[in-house]
Design a protein that fits this description.
Elements (H helix, E strand, L loop, with lengths): L1 E4 L2 E4 L2 E3 L5 H4 L5 E5 L8 H12 L3 E5 L4 H5 L4 H4 L1 E7 L6 H7 L5 H5 L9 E6 L3 E3 L5 E6 L2 E6 L13 H13 L10 H8 L3 E4 L1
Parallel strand pairs: 3-11, 4-5, 4-11, 5-10
Antiparallel strand pairs: 1-2, 6-7, 8-9, 9-10
Length: 203
């Protein structure tokens, strides 16, 4: 399957990561996606290794939604760049849906027919060094050479099946472009090389 990074299609290898193989796999990855997962179950040593990996240039994407507190809880707010406030259930009005409907942000979600009120949504409160995205409901924080992107919803929501490759690529691009390490990938050949081991997910 072809994914689009910076508007160019590359063959991307997806890799399923679990508690048992994460530490062995981490140094081979460029992106790590953790979605609605009790991160504390990984243990403090593994959490610290994830933080070190990000600082060295890794891009961590975190999906939250209704399990935001347990997904974020093992990480320091200084690392993720956010704290979690109220969580609105699927079907309830939330600020992201309001912004979508008034076309003040999240235009691609509106155009794709994605109803942001149909998903559980965490109220994420950004820290001083964080950047609030208008591409997706969430925040991005630069950490060392890498970055941490925290989404207010779970990437695995059924509503997200409506998302096209461009919208998905925009989320990854937010993590990449808001990191100090993005300058190491300047040419198409650089990004093609990166793409061979780009994605992994814990959910």
């Amino acid at each position: 399957e072809r994914y689009f990074i910076r508007n160019s299609g590359y063959p991307i290898s997806l890799m399923e990561v679990n508690k048992e193989n994460l530490e062995k796999t981490l140094d081979k990855l460029y992106f790590l996606v953790i979605d609605q997962y009790d991160v504390s179950s990984l243990g403090n040593d593994t959490v610290k290794k994830i933080e070190k990996w990000v600082s060295a240039g890794g891009w961590l994407l975190i999906g939250t939604g209704e399990r935001a507190e347990e997904t974020l809880g093992a990480f320091s707010p200084n690392f993720t760049g956010v704290t979690c406030g109220e969580i609105t259930a699927a079907g309830e009005e939330n600020s992201a849906h309001t912004a979508e409907q008034t076309q003040t942000a999240f235009y691609d979600y509106y155009d794709s027919g994605i109803d942001l009120s149909a998903m559980a949504m965490a109220e994420l409160i950004g820290q001083n060094a964080s950047y609030e995205s208008n591409i997706f409901p969430g925040w991005v924080t630069m950490q060392g050479k890498g970055s941490v992107l925290v989404s207010a919803f779970s990437f695995g929501e059924d509503e997200m099946k409506k998302a096209g490759s461009s919208l998905c690529s925009d989320i990854y691009d937010e993590a990449v472009c808001n990191s100090a390490g993005t300058n190491q990938y300047q040419t198409d050949s650089d990004w093609g090389y990166m793409g061979r081991d780009a994605f992994a997910a814990i959910d």
